[in-house]
Amino acid sequence: MKNRIIVTGGAGFLGSHLCERLLGEGHEVICVDNFFTGQKRNIVHLMDNPYFEVLRHDICFPLYLEADEIYNLACPASPIHYQRHPTQTTKVNVNGSTNMLGLAKRIGARILQASTSEVYGDPTVHPQKEDYWGNVNPIGPRSCYDEGKRCAETLFMDYRKQHQLGIKIVRIFNTYGPHMHPHDGRVVSNFIMQALRNKSISIYGNGSQTRSFCYCDDLIDGFVRMMSTSDDIIGPTNLGNPNEFTIKQLAEQVIELTGSKSRIDYLPLPQDDPRQRCPDITKARTELGWQPTVELKEGLIKTIAYFDGLLTEDPNL
Ligand code: NAD
Ligand code: UDP
Ligand code: UDP
Asked: What Pfam families does the annotation carry (predicted)?
């Protein structure tokens, strides 16, 4: 069935892959984005498709459209971006989500929230299951994002309770791939850009902290499965790759795959940086039949090729 689907944050890293996937399935897609961290480059290849529309709009303001489904991804995701505008980050999660829920309520659309592993904060339980309530600092440098996303989950659950809205919540763990912003400060993009330029690789702390990296195509598949499951499966559901690596291992892997001459530089660890992060994806496996299929090495090769292409186009990037 052909649906009309709104993707907020559709010009961002994940949103652009989602728009492409949905168009590929024959749906009509409306990308709503204020281009705060999104880039035209991510969606330019979709512009010729007559079933693709782009709306420059900040979802903190009301939006009146008609659609069957809404994927709510609008929110800066990298620490340097969201910490640059912390109040705006909380607002997009609270006011922006409220508007999208109000829109979904008016038009009777199903709505999916892109939540995050950050709702677990610096976790004291490992790996993280959905019933863990988290260890979050409410007033630290990451709070605008963590608490904003936690409040958005509350809003989604309460719109369901109060208005019987068809909601879905996925908690995304670190995801990487083509279309990441080259200067978003996230570890995968930083390391690849540094390695391709033979510049020092910046490890924060001693590199023993862990993350689990999911390739974007796997994650988008999880989104689409979640949206199409029955009404009673609402989440929150973890989506991520359970293979855990230290940041030092990631640096070594990137150096090897790029054949770089980069050396490793150890820099101070940022405040409130989670020590360990790894999803328990039992729920996604059983309820969605989903699990990641792309190994880190395979995903890194594709991501390196993307960044290499960007640098060939513009060596001063
Ligand atoms: P991104 O920064 O590349 O994309 C976010 C998009 O939202 C951008 O295009 C930006 O311009 C847009 N946006 C921001 N504020 C907006 C507003 N007020 N109105 C309209 N558009 C707005 O980030 P991403 O990595 O693609 O993340 C997408 C979503 O997934 C975010 O909600 C993020 O919190 C969540 N997420 C991502 C990851 C990850 O590893 N990439 C992990 C956990 C959660
Ligand atoms: N809203 C929107 N588009 C719509 C319907 C509502 O942007 O099509 C916004 C509206 O501005 C409101 C918010 O969504 O601020 C929440 O709407 P809801 O109906 O839940 O709340 P109420 O208007 O009753 O406060
Ligand atoms: N990190 C690092 N060097 C960098 C960027 C990040 O060592 O150039 C570390 C960071 O301190 C964190 C991990 O890599 O421990 C993942 O950071 P990212 O910002 O990608 O995501 P998040 O902290 O939100 O998981």
From this structure: GDP_Man_Dehyd
